[in-house]
Design goal:
The structure holds two protein chains of two kinds. By secondary structure, chain A is mainly beta. In chain A, the strands form three sheets. In chain A, strands 2, 5, 6, 10, 11 and 12 form a six-stranded mixed sheet that branches. Chain A has a four-stranded antiparallel sheet with strand order 3-9-8-7, with no helix packed on it. In chain A, strand 5 and strand 6 form a beta hairpin. The N and C termini of chain A lie far apart (about 40 Å). Chain B is mainly beta. In chain B, about 0% of the residues lie in helices and about 50% in strands. In chain B, strands 2, 4, 5, 6, 9, 10 and 11 form a seven-stranded mixed sheet that branches. A four-stranded antiparallel sheet of chain B has the order 1-3-8-7, with no helix packed on it. In chain B, strand 4 and strand 5 form a beta hairpin. Classes of the chains: A mainly beta, B mainly beta.
Chain lengths: ~110, ~110
């Protein structure tokens, strides 16, 4: 069975500071990893994905994520956070053999001006 | 929210009543999904459909039913057997089953009167 953990319910940062949202995963095979963002009362928007290749993945809105196989992590990062980055962020995973996605519980990011 | 339309945005259910949530997509996607979102629990898969006239139970299908008579439509019925229906419901689609990036609608918030 596959699973995702987002250990922090909330992350608070000041505008202009680096932002990190943590994600660890468990799969039986090779992982397919995703980050999505959700604004209040809206659907999820895709940010970035890791399938194979370079461990550092760049995505939308200046976000990037680093795949670390030994630590089974896929943390989301942004070098300089904006107030408009305040939202709910979800990490998701699937493995080779199961096309269903498993989502983490989500991390609420608040960026203060 | 791309080409996925969910309606209504808000829905209220009386005890013992069945209600149907609409999901329509104009993306020509084969696969469609229904998720339930509760605070602090992430997204849980209710039903999915790989192709028209086919659908499968997800992780929490009890108390729900679906149909997939047309490629563009995947309605979800919340039956009276679902004792705790209050949640945010999200519909998603992918070009093909197993194609990774899911596109989401804006969601329907269901409450019990």
């Amino acid at each position: 069975a596959q699973s995702v953990a987002q250990p922090e319910d909330q992350v608070n940062v000041a505008e202009g500071n680096p932002l990190t949202v943590k994600c660890t995963y468990s799969v039986s095979g090779n992982p397919y990893l995703f980050w999505y963002v959700q604004y209040p009362n809206r659907g999820l928007q895709f940010l970035l994905k890791y399938i194979t290749g370079d461990n550092l993945v760049k995505g939308s809105y200046g976000f990037e994520a680093e795949f670390n196989k030994s630590q089974t992590s896929f943390h989301l990062k942004k070098p300089s956070a904006l107030v408009s980055d305040s939202a709910l962020y979800f990490c998701a995973v699937r493995d080779n053999d199961d096309y269903k996605l498993s989502f983490g519980a989500g991390t609420t990011v608040t960026v203060r001006a | 929210d791309g080409g996925i339309t969910q309606s209504p945005k808000y829905l209220f259910r009386k005890e013992g009543q069945n209600v149907t949530l609409s999901c329509e997509q104009n993306l020509n996607h084969d696969a469609m999904y229904w998720y339930r979102q509760d605070p602090g629990q992430g997204l849980r898969l209710i039903y999915y459909s790989q192709i028209v006239n086919d659908f499968q139970k997800g992780d929490i299908a009890e108390g729900y039913s679906v149909s997939r008579e047309k490629k563009e439509s995947f309605p979800l019925t919340v039956t009276s057997a679902q004792k705790n229906p209050t949640a945010f419901y999200l519909c998603a689609s992918t070009p093909e089953w197993g194609k990774n990036i899911q596109y989401f609608g804006a969601g329907t918030r269901l409450s019990v009167l």
